[in-house]
Amino acid sequence: MAKNNKLELTWAGKDAQISPEPRILLEDKKKSYGDQDTENMLIHGDNLLALKSLEADFAGKVKCIYIDPPYSTGNAFEHYDDGYEHSIWLSLMRDRLEILRNLLAEDGSIWISIDDNEQAYLKMLMDEVLGRQNFINNVIWQKKYAPQNDAKWLSDNHDFIMVWAKDKNTWRPNLLPRSEEMNARYKNPDTDPRGVWKSGDLSVKTYNTATDYPITTPSGRCVNPPAGYCWRVSKEKFAEMISDNRIWFGPTGNSVPSIKRFLSEVKQGLTSMTIWTYQEVGHNQDAKKEVIAFNSKDVFATPKPERLIERVLTLGSNEGDLVLDSFLGSGTTAAVAHKMGRRWIGIELGDHAYTHCLPRLKKVVDGEDQGGISKAVAWKGGGGFKFYELASSLITKDSRGFDIISKEYNGDMLAEAMCKIMGFKYRPDKSVFWKQGQGTEKNWLFTTTMTLTEDYLEEIHNDLGNDSLLICCGGFTGNKDAFKNIAIKKSPRPSWKNANGTSQAILYL
User: Hey, CA dihedral for 255, 256, 262, 267, is it positive or negative?
Assistant: First the structure.
């Protein structure tokens, strides 16, 4: 801390940060389901590698991120390794959170479920990643509806959902929808043409002598504010409100005056509070019942109820927005986002991408999943998703132990992989072979394993015009600087290390 003179969280291995390989994603068309034009993505694979693979195409485009990472409790979970030593857990989270920050839109937010074991550490870690000034709130979710009588100390009945914005000055949460119970409090006893209304207190405790005056009711009774109080408005404003029929003296005209607040004029929604009870958003047992509906033999240990995720997505996104969950678990976030008309990306490492997420989301698409929030949003089915696997590493070793490009990569896969590594978008042009990746409007990338010649470059240069081209090739003969708008780099060689000094998966040319 003395070196950089700033307050920060430190842990063993913090400085040993890895740089993940930006793998390409391979669609498994047999597992993709529903609408073939869908943008929804279900990805099976390590979420660090998957997030890196998304970064080039989705940076700054995700409106709402919700994650429910392993809590580092020291317990052995069937579907998650939830017993990471604290330092390892912090490194695991830091590496992923930094990419999630890059994916987040400027007006986006990230919501993270966590428990008491790591909540304080996560706050400091996220303050480093997103900035303390962008912290929004720490929401308390009541996850259990009854005390745990065998608890050794106190019965733990809540988890946290910690919220940060990409830019707190830009981001604003949506309002929660008004309930029928809230609207039922509004009546219209005087048949006012402006519709139903509810009376509000005319007096206020912040005392001001200018607004402490007597009022005569229609029945002739003289009333004053309660002791220590004054009226909310001046005499002149009160007279205007009388003329506009905005003051209510009761059915007989003898009551203390109150303000008529019309439903049509009040805020059409409710500002969320930071304590969410199980009556509002469900509890653990609700969540397990929802999972049992599509996988009764292998119930996920720590699912979240759909109503809880609905609350998060209601506050943090709108219909059509892109939602991401990189610890998808049993698929709840994707299922809820789908039912709510959001676009979504879900990433899951374990086999439950096949055993839980895939069957659940198929039922959502077919309209067969009528649990969770389905009835509340009148879900009938529709849409679809594409299923992806992470490609193997671009670099492998030959029989002599030398690093070579993997034989699993064909020409198209190699071109796409190089686009990700070089920061280009993979946009192959069907009519122009060398337009494989696009950087800016007039900046292109071409990858080939061939050894090129100066004559070959001249043919490309004749078609290139004022655009610029970067070529990654197996070799080159001639003057590689012959054309100012064409740059040549040799085929990739591995030059990367992870925290242990062993081969990782980043390429430098």
Answer: negative
